[in-house]
Give the backbone structure.
Amino acid sequence: MTERSFRFTHAVTRRPGPDVVSGLRAVDTGAPDLDRFLGHHAAYVAALRATGAEVVELDPLDGFPDAVFVEDTALCLPEGAIIMRPGAPSRLGETEGMTPVLERIYGEVRRVAGPGFIEGGDILTTEREILVGRSARTDADGIAELAGIVADWGYRLREVTVPAGVLHFKTDCSLLDAETILATERLAASGCFDGYRVIHTAEGEEAAANAIRFNNVVIMAAGFPRTREALDAAGYATVEIGNAEAAKLDGGMSCLSLRFTPPA
Ligand code: GLY
């Protein structure tokens, strides 16, 4: 079994800028504090770099309040990168800022052209398949187009349903290793992870589900002690990062980066 779904040489992030106070949110709990967000973001980038990865840190993208959540703009696989087509109208233009960055790293990139929509937050790549959640941001046409784009690289796509009221598929799950998923009970109850080992987030700690396995560590949002305990007990090396500001915009650990190993 390979480990290419969680061992990476590269990541791309984008610092939040002043626009971030206008980012999309399901429930308004107040605007994020930019200075505090920048502090959390710097700690996140440092945690990625500490694993030995090269991290490309992009400047804020003026006019795009959610651009810090770079994960939604692309899917990066060892064979190539695919530019997504975000389903949130205010985020559609973010892909223009990401395309040249990934072209510099990968050479040519592929693109979801539409008419469908798909966001990276709805995509979980495991060693054996690509799971894509149908959500308010990702539709059947977007999923079908992505399936066609990656078919010649040998990937199998499986569509799953994101629970109502949940922003993205990966809001509620993360890959921990080739066989193991961290997931909320409400998502795992659908059976979408049958055949995998599942570690559930602790009751009341559903927001801990959006973590990332990045090389030797699991980077998770701070403030979820019982879920962290479960991960530690299962043998994972966990790193906690403050996420209070990103969480006001429904963002988490996976949303803040693209993680990949480009072709040599
Ligand atoms: N605020 C993140 C998003 O809604 O896309």
User: Anything to note?
Assistant: The pocket of glycine is lined by residues 23-25, 66, 69, 88, 91, 167, 249-251 (CB under 6 Å).
